[in-house]
Specification:
The protein is an alpha/beta fold and about 375 residues long. The protein has helices at about 5-15, 45-50, 75-85, 95-105, 135-140, 155-165, 185-195, 245-255, 290-305, 315-320, 325-335, 360-380; strands at about 35-40, 55-60, 65-70, 90-95, 110-115, 120-125, 140-145, 175-180, 260-270, 275, 310-315, 340-345. The protein has two domains: about 30-100, Metallocarboxypeptidase-like (Alpha-Beta Plaits, 2-Layer Sandwich), CATH 3.30.70.340; about 105-380, Zn peptidases (Aminopeptidase, 3-Layer(aba) Sandwich), CATH 3.40.630.10. The longest helix is centred in the C-terminal third of the chain and has 20 residues, at about 360-380. GO terms for molecular function: metallocarboxypeptidase activity; zinc ion binding.
Length: about 375
Amino acid sequence: MMSTVPFVIVATVTVIVATVSGKESSRHEILRGHQIWQLSNDVGDVPLEVMQKGLLDVLGHFGTSKKVRVPFHCLEEAQRLLQEKGVSREILVEDLATFLEDHERLSKRLTSIGKSFENRDLWMVHVRPNDPSDSEEAGAVWIEAGIHAREWISPAVALHILKELVQDNGSIGNFDVYVVPMANPDGYNYSFTSDRLWRKNRRITSQPGCGGVDLNRNWDFHYGVGASENECSEVYRGSEPFSEPETKALRDAMTKVKDQLKVVMSLHSYGQQLLYPWGYTKHKTAPDTSDLIARGKVFADAAKSVHNTVYKVVNSAGDLYKASGATDDWAKGVLGVKYTYTLELRDEGMSGFNLDPSHIVPCSEEVWEGLKALLYEISKE
């Protein structure tokens, strides 16, 4: 029986990107002037009492939800009754119709770009800017997460980025953004149900007990260097380049938008490092290395400003280890994308892959600030 874990990821993505089509926006006119209020904590049955008078609508379950919708013609009376009951309120949304219309100016698309080895969908979300015509000049950003199963912080951060994009995509200018929040759903599921430290996908190999291919060694650029032919190895590269359905799907989807791409970032953990190519060799310098380093430092400085977390900007092979067949090397070497990075998220090794969930929000916040700063600098080129 298939676990519900990947379903939770899909459901979360669906909620984040769900929106009504622009052609239906006129139906929101009936909500013009309506407000969303957050009531103070000790409200008791007050919202229900006021609702029974036809003055507001409780958004959620009675007794637990503190958010209410108040029609325009009821604003003064609802406020008066709440004050009489000693309940204060904060206005979360000034005009519900405008709020919904603003969100609909974004075009958000959730599509399956392929299937995993165990036939799970590989979901991609495309978030477009307010004015799609502006994105042609600005370019696009590709963010991939969860290609290594045990790196749980990676898809969590990707989902946070999606949330921020949907709520305020103007903060990254006019970039199109493509996000694959779970590139290895089979392995991710297995890391929950059977082996917390599982890294690879779930390919069945010829060696009993040695399943899986390292998807970040399966890309066709200097394939094989720093990887292994041994099916039992954690860095088993696969039988051939793009032998795996997951990497084929990622390759095909990325290739379709290659002319737009300005940035490709693959989210991993752990180490707090922003790695730039090449990964396959320490003896050759990638094109635009000085720009990769300079823009990388912009990311690191902005990320540090949030929670004082230090991200080092280092070369993959020279400062870490040789690893070929990775997303960032392929995107730069084959597609010619100028800015390609692997971002190793929190922490520096104290908890490693078993990062406490309390890190999810601060890690996501610092990455979001770093990404915004990085894209702002690139947009000026």
